[in-house]
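Following up on my earlier thread - several people asked me to post the actual chain instead of describing it. Fair enough. Here it is, all 292 residues.
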Amino acid sequence: MYDCRMKTLSIKARLRHFAKQVLKGMGRKPGLYRRTRDLLYEPRAYEALRARSLDDPGDREMRAYTAEQPSPHYHALIRLYTDMHTHGYQAGADRVAAEKVYAGSTLRRYAHPIRRVFADHQVSSALDYGAGKGENYKTHEPFRVAETGEVISDLKSFWGVDHIRPFDPALGDEIPQDTYDAVLCTDVLEHVFAADVPWVVDGLFARAKKVVFVTVSCRLANARIPTGEQAHITLRAPAWWAGVFHATANRHPDVDYVLCCDAPDIKGNHENFWFAREGYERRVTPDTTFSR
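Reply from S.P.:
Thanks for posting it. Predicted structure:
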């Protein structure tokens, strides 16, 4: 996935390589890659879930979770993120104030690609799944779009849409049952327990009429949840996420998707890996189109 040499490596070697690149991109010592490998591929949560299943004589086999029956971790994580929205959280040596917790700053980095996706698919309505406090849809300070230099203060007008519905389960929102032309989900899925990812992603497609736009961070987070654990509990390589979306998209043939994974490249530098129903782009240029 990263260069031609990767094609000759075994799966285990690829996992070790990606773990080392994550640490290198963070400026961490390569010798510490085992901790990241454990976070990437052997989360303690899996063992806890497996132990719980084995302890229950009536549920000795792993089962497929759904929106109606999520994993035991799903609601526990929702409660933890509700606590973070209320009391703030620790990020390294700093404390993030409650009013700044998940206010929507990540979405702004993708304002321009989203506009192009919306234009390609003639989007007039959108659901922002995991919008946090949804500050982007309220009065806020203007910000500059990196790709064009434009200064904007109203994303809805910038994108040319009529309606945007922000949703975040950690704020007590009920998930909408309506469908929208587009569904956005930026830097959310890495916070979802891995066993719940398939049904959450399927829910994104089920609520979209035309296109799903998703970004995922494949890096360790500075943020800690109140238990002291890493906030990015599902840390996976871009190819893993691409597989999840490809499989889900096959069940929703009329809905396009654009997936952007922020991950280390072969040199440990920040790189965006773009995936779509019709292919893969290492870099998005002004000529790149996201429509079929």
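The longest helix spans residues 11-26. That should answer part of your original question.
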